[in-house]
Design brief:
The protein is an alpha+beta fold. The protein contains three helices and four strands. Helix content is 30%, strand content 27%. It is globular.
């Protein structure tokens, strides 16, 4: 599977238990660059699976999760102060 989607996932979870569960899930999909902010490089299938798994964790009436797609050119232009750019896999890496 080719990871070809750069996606930022941001969240605001009201309950500590759900927040911890979501954090554990997100660690397996991306790199945490802020407390509730992950930078991910995903295949289309991984993105669908991630969204489905998040829906099983959150309470939509209390919690918020945002998914922001970023094109390669825009991601390369991100200016960072205080931390280095995350080392994401190359888009052409094959994941087995």
């Amino acid at each position: 599977m080719i990871r070809n989607r750069i996606m930022l996932v941001v969240y605001d979870i009201a309950d500590n238990k759900r927040r911890r569960e979501l954090f554990k899930l997100m660690k397996s999909y991306g790199i945490r660059t802020q407390f509730s902010f992950f930078e991910c490089l995903l295949s289309e299938k991984q993105e669908v699976t991630l969204r489905f798994r998040i829906m099983g964790i959150i309470n939509p009436s209390e919690d918020k999760v945002g998914f922001i797609h970023v094109c390669d050119r825009c991601f390369k232009q991100v200016k960072r102060i205080g931390y280095a750019a995350p080392e994401l896999f190359s888009k052409n890496d094959m994941i087995f």
